[in-house]
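Renewal narrative, Specific Aim 1. Our central claim is that a sequence can be written position by position from structural information alone. The example that follows is taken directly from our test logs and has not been curated for this report. It begins with the structure tokens describing the chain, in the order in which they were read.
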């Protein structure tokens, strides 16, 4: 049964060419918002906390600071409204899920940037 589900996902789910990113990277996600008949593009820029799941059900969590309040958003990788993803900075972290980042403020909330 698992192989049948995997086969259907591979054949019929359209894949988008997304850049490689992981936890600690700062990315900008552009997605469509429908308001009645109007469609507009909005972006969400923040630090990737985690990537979770595989295949069609893969998601990633982004956190940004809006004023003094932390805002997190979970995006499915196969979201039809997802237009593009830009990687702004590559971060160097030791963990795949950086939930400890939620409790950090000020200078401690900085992530080392990877230079190429």
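The sequence written for that structure reads:
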């Amino acid at each position: 049964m698992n192989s049948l589900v995997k086969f259907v996902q591979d054949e019929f789910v359209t894949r988008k060419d997304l850049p490689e990113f992981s936890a600690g990277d700062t990315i900008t996600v552009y997605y469509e918002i429908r308001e009645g008949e109007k469609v507009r593009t909005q972006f969400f820029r923040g630090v990737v906390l985690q990537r979770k799941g595989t295949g069609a059900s893969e998601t990633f969590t982004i956190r940004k600071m809006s004023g003094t309040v932390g805002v997190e958003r979970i995006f499915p990788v196969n979201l039809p409204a997802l237009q593009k993803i830009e990687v702004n900075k590559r971060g160097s972290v030791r963990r795949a899920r950086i939930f400890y980042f939620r409790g950090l403020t000020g200078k401690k909330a900085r992530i080392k940037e990877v230079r190429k």
